[in-house]
Amino acid sequence: MTISLVLVGKTDNHHLEALIDDYKKRLSHFVNFEIIIIPDLKKRKNMEIELQKEKEGELILKKISTSDFVVLMDENGGEYSSTKLAGWLQKRMNTGLKNLVFVVGGPYGFSQEVYARGNQKLSLSKMTFSHQMIRLFFTEQLYRAFTILGNLPYHHE
Fold this sequence. Notes:
Helix content: 40-55%
Shape: globular
Number of strands: 5
Order of helices and strands: EHEHEHEHEH
CATH class: Alpha Beta
Strand content: 15-25%
Structural class: alpha/beta
CATH topology: Alpha/beta knot
Mean pLDDT: 94
Number of domains: 1
């Protein structure tokens, strides 16, 4: 299985980028993991919010295949503990799923077309975090899930 993380905009903090890269490298021992970055829209400061979401949505949808299982990282999504996330991932792997795609939208969220394409919504917390931080938190939780599945000593309960 390949797990992709689709992001709108690059990470502009080199400290966060280094931590994300560290977890990405660690994940390579368990799964084919890739980060796909969609560039920020040009002249977006002059755009209406709905138009910005539509244009970002078009770019997001171009990165998703019809056979992909798509999880939208959304504040209104379901929440899992780390162990529940690990179990959820195991179930996806057991089905023979080839591509699992997680998507972090732009600053205003997703277009209706992206919501319609998503198979599931997932929230990392009821608190609000910057899109930059979500990238790190998600990548770390994905790594944690695989260490739980592998009975490795990273996660403590």
